[in-house]
Amino acid sequence: MPVTDDEIREKYLERAIRELNTLTRDLQECSHCPRGSLMPVLGSGHPQADVLLLKYAPTAAEIDEGVAFYGRVGTALMKSLERLRIDPLVVYGTLCVKCPVSDTSLADPGCVARVVEELAIVQPRIVVVMGEEALAVLNDLDVPLARPVVAEPGRVQELTPSIDALYTPDIDGALDEEAAKRAFWSAFRVLGDWYADLPPY
Questions:
Q1: Distance CA 91, CA 196 (A)
Q2: Which of 24, 52, 73, 88 sits at a 20 to 30 Å CA gap from 79?
């Protein structure tokens, strides 16, 4: 009996879940960063998301819960996604610096480079890069076939032949000040048009 498209998709999803679980275990057992007894802050969302959100380092709320985009940042993003009519189930969020270190320069470069593994597992259609520090990390990573992404808020660019990129200001700095909120939203709302233009298959 021939294999159906649904069965193929299910196999890919199962593989992505297995690979993310392995990455999670590796990160939890990693001893390269001086994080003490604190656990790393892990990515969260759909294992085969269309949209991958990338920011530089965790906030206190994210460190407390061990999950990226938890707390005020997550609430702001959920409201933004809802306004753009983007299903949160097609989104995966992660951090460049996953370990809760007192100084982000203490993060092991090998750990930071694990973002490449997440990109390979999730295989998003677009990466939303939040802030100049996250952009610098992304451009320094050895992502296969990648082109440099420039800090032009609100412009969709080609990261690789199969992945677009959208640069926005850092959302962590855009929660309290009105001008910063507007600047973030002005760039982030472009994601809505990009998502609406995706083919329905």
A1: 14
A2: 24
